[in-house]
């Protein structure tokens, strides 16, 4: 049995079910929570201070790997902060660790993506930080659309149909994109990825898809990320 640890914001209601849906039966998912109500730079910054405590609690369950499952929370201080965060969590959990923002970069690089369209649920402040982070990591952000949401519970109320519609809108405005990234581990979008890929013939990743893929690659697990949109309805 493989035990995977997931460190999530306290208001996240999406990461756990999406992780569970993509993982084989011989994997179990164990979570630890950090306080967060609103998705703002200040709250995300404060939340990161609690990351090591959460990871150390997961070490009590002898997890085989741990993920910091928050996109903007792992890019809040730009490129470099993500790597430091992974190192801190790995030490605290005594296991390999990944952070969502860095997992997204690894996934886009593995897909040979250069020009990325981005769909987010965020307000302007976090959209700006995300654009800067992706640019720092060598990607051209050809289109970015945010829904303007701040309350994380409101983000969690979005579903895969919302992600499908927003993804189509963003890609329609960016025919030059060679990948689409649907951001936020609390944005239920995993079931929309296959449909968007089929419609636009480019790779589509989400925060949870990238994090799951990255964590599973560290612990030798094969995840199933080909989940159809109908599964979420």
TrEMBL record:
It holds the Pfam family Amdase. InterPro entries: Iso_Racemase_Enz_sf, MaiA/AMDase. Signal peptide: none annotated. This is Aspartate/glutamate racemase family protein. It comes from Halopelagius fulvigenes.
């Amino acid at each position: 049995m493989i035990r995977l640890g997931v460190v999530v914001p306290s208001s996240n209601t999406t990461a756990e079910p999406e992780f569970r849906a993509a993982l084989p039966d011989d994997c179990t998912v164990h979570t630890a929570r950090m306080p967060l109500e609103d998705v703002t730079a200040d709250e995300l910054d404060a939340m990161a201070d609690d990351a090591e405590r959460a990871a150390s609690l997961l070490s009590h369950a002898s997890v085989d790997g741990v993920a910091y499952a928050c996109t903007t929370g792992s890019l809040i201080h730009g490129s470099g902060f993500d790597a430091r965060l992974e190192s801190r969590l790995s030490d605290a959990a005594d296991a390999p660790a990944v952070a969502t923002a860095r997992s997204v970069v690894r996934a886009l690089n593995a897909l040979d993506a250069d020009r990325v369209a981005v769909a987010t649920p965020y307000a302007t402040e976090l959209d700006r930080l995300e654009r800067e982070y992706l640019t720092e990591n060598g990607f051209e952000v050809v289109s970015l659309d945010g829904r303007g949401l701040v309350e994380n519970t409101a983000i969690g109320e979005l579903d895969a149909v919302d992600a499908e519609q927003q993804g189509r809108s963003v890609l329609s405005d960016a025919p030059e994109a060679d990948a689409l990234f649907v951001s936020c581990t609390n944005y239920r979008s995993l079931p929309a990825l296959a449909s968007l890929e089929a419609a636009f013939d480019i790779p589509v990743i989400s925060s949870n898809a990238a994090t799951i893929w990255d964590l599973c690659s560290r612990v030798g697990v094969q995840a199933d990320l080909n989940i159809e949109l109908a599964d979420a309805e």
